[in-house]
Amino acid sequence: MPKISGHWGFYSFIEAKSQLNYKLGTDSGEGSASDHMTIEQMKNTTFPKVSFDDWKDAAVRTLKDKPFEQLITPTYEGIDLQPLYTAAHLQNTLNYSEAISHAKQDADWLIAQGANSNSATEFLHKTKAQFERGNEMLVYVATSTPWTWSDLELQELATLLTIHPFYFSVNDSSDEILGVFEQFTEQELLTLNGYLKGVSKPYLKSLLSTNIIHDIGGTAVHELAYALIALSKQAEKQSDFTNKVAIQFAIDTNFFMEISKLRAFRVLWKAFSKAYDVKQTSIPMFVETSLRSYSKLDPTVNLLRAGNATFSAVLGGADIITVHPHDVLTGSSSSSERIARNVQLVIRQETMVNKIIDPSAGSYYIETLTTDLVRQSWELFLQVIEMNSEEQTDYLMGLARETQTNRAQVLANRKAALIGTNMYANPVDEIPSIVAQETTERLAIPFEKLRKHFADNPMKSAVVSFGVLKDVKPRADFVQGFLQAGGLNPEMSPVFTTTSDAWHWVKSNQIDYVVIAAKDQVVTELLSEFLNQADKQTIIDVAGKFTEEQQWRDLGLNDTVFVGQDLIEKMNQLVHVKKEGERGHEA
Asked: Which tens digits make up the pLDDT trace of 82-119?
């Protein structure tokens, strides 16, 4: 049996288990104890080897003869994920495990949690408290409102910088925190272990961030190519820059892709070093959990996203990791900040992966994916490097935005899930009235806007069912989930058999918007009659697609609701119809 990995890898195990059960006489539950194999017989039991073709045939049979190609998953990177990876895949690619292992000096990583604060005094207090609770790096990210630092506070900060590694992200050179470096002599400055983003200082490592591409929707390939472009610009400025830079990546929830992205950078950096004839030192990788998939709706789900992203960062070989609290979008609390810090502590203590350099090495799936990313990213880098310097970033940002449009469309059609937002939405979630300016083009924003609109402009909605409960319930439940994701919380009607009873219920409950849910045959029989009884103020949709749709529209039907529909477009159309109806009623 070949060693397997990937999301269909369990199948061969099941095959082997069933064969073992057959030999033990337990597959059907029949047979006496005397029929069972002895321990010695078990030890000598062998299983026939299962080839990839055998597995493929079995998989297709299990899927009721659907085409095998249906099991192949395309990615936004342009990589087709196979349902099963075997040693043959690895033999057809380059194995970079050794190069990746040599590129990372330490299996462990630094826990770099920020301290959400409103002043320098609060920042210092929180930072010192965090160091006592497992944080290992001082992290300062400038806020929109500048802080005032006293001389005493700068001296206190300077003391911390001599003890701990640190990271500053400032908007410009006017940030008063930069005055802390005046507390040191030139010789002392050279001993500091710090990273700086926003401005440059010769005694600190500059942080080259790929977040500008990631935050607007870029793929792993786009981010890696951008990282190489940023490094090329550094190489043009100075040849001995390698000990003075670090690279920053945001890590999203695509678990295996994010692991492979970080591994691929190690390989690409080695190739880059050779191409530019620079010293092949190990560039620190500074990683933070991505806000791209975070949502203000059902924010506790963000904790699962953060845990997923953090573990992939660890397995990918990150050197420094920041985990954003699950409620960071609406204002984190001391509790959520503690949970975010503990995400890393739990991974470190419970998995022991900090004892192994490149723990994902040898996985057929990850090794193949790493190779694909290396190849595609290098090809894109070679393409972009030929452009004018001013055009390079714009070109990559254009690719990223195009991908983001595709991501948003898939979520709007609910062909992919953003749990708690476009799927399994909690209708009681509220969006804060004050929304801070964001630089990340989060995928949840269109859904949050709809939720906010319907909170400010209530529309009483209902799913009205006809027929028999067991027949109509799947369709009614779909409509309920659809509308909840769109910002409404519909009432679920009793299951009616007559249109008069249904319309009486609608009027008695003062429903503004109705979706009719029933089996196709029942809809065809009853909808015209229901529409003839309805008034012109109530907005009426029907669940499903029907050839009679235009005929029903002539009777007053507004629209349809169906699987695969663009939810954002549909709900905005509903908002427009409601507004037009109110204007017409006022007139």
From this structure: 998 888 877 777 778 888 888 888 899 999 999 889 99
Cα 293 to Cα 309: distance, rounded to the nearest angstrom? 11
CB neighbour list of residue 145: distance below 8 Å, 6 or more residues apart = none
Q: Which two structure tokens, joined as six digits, stand for 44?
A: 């000598």
Q: Do the Cβ atoms of 332 and 338 come closer than 8 Å?
A: no
- Distance (Å, rounded) from C-alpha 285 to C-alpha 104? 10
Domains and CATH numbers, the chain: 10-71 (no CATH), 97-401 (3.20.20.240), 457-586 (3.40.50.280)
Token pair listed for 186:
């030139």
Task: Kindly give, in sequence order, each residue whose CB lies less than 8 Å from that of residue 406, ignoring residues fewer than 6 positions away.
Answer: 76
DSSP E strands, 252-328: 285-289, 320-322
**Inter-axis angle of helices 364-385 and 255-276, nearest 10:** 50
pLDDT, tens digit, for every residue of 410-467? Answer: 999 999 999 999 999 998 888 776 555 677 899 999 999 999 999 999 999 999 999 9
Task: Evaluate whether 353 touches 315 at the Cβ level (below 8 Å).
Answer: yes
Start-to-end C-alpha separation, the chain:
76
